[in-house]
Design a protein that fits this description.
This protein has 155 residues and is mostly helical. Helices cover 67% and strands 5% of the residues. A hairpin with a 3-residue loop joins strand 1 and strand 2. The radius of gyration is 25 Å and the shape is elongated.
Length: 155
């Protein structure tokens, strides 16, 4: 950001598009959840991931379409001037970086993988009994294996 009275200011993504980080981390967490989910839950998670990707795209596009509004908190802090119109008059130009384009690509990847997950969910292998909600059945063989591994099967 360059202005007439304050020179150049660097504005990070945490100011210009603060929710992108949270949406991206939530999308990353879904990857682990999808891996252990059953088919129905996998599709629900894919729908949530689609919405997260859409959120990343919307927030990024808003920051790209109106960069003055995206940098106003930093400019206001640096100049002590409040109000959108007053601050917009102070900002001479906003020089973007390549990072918003990476954000757009990340949002698109989230949406594409969500669609792929939704369409292919029934073809994925099922989760094991540990994550499937089924009780582990005790048998004499499993007790013997536990004893062989050094565990006490009576605990």
């Amino acid at each position: 950001v360059r202005g007439m009275s304050f020179g150049a200011l660097a504005v990070g993504a945490d100011i210009a598009a603060p929710s992108v980080t949270a949406l991206s981390v939530a999308g990353l967490a879904l990857v682990g959840a999808v891996a252990i989910a059953n088919t129905v839950v996998r599709r629900v998670l894919a729908a949530i991931q689609l919405l997260l990707g859409l959120g990343v795209l919307i927030v990024t596009v808003r920051a790209l379409m109106d960069p003055i509004t995206a940098v106003l908190p930093t400019v206001s802090t640096a100049t002590g001037v409040a109000g959108s119109d007053s601050l917009a008059a102070l900002v001479g130009s906003v020089d973007g970086s390549v990072w918003p384009w990476f954000s757009l690509a990340g949002g698109a990847v989230l949406m594409l993988t969500a669609a792929w997950t939704f369409m292919t969910a029934r073809n994925w292998p099922g989760s094991g009994s540990k994550y499937g909600g089924q009780a582990i059945v005790k048998s004499p063989v499993s007790d013997w294996d536990a004893l062989s591994d050094g565990a006490d099967p009576t605990d």
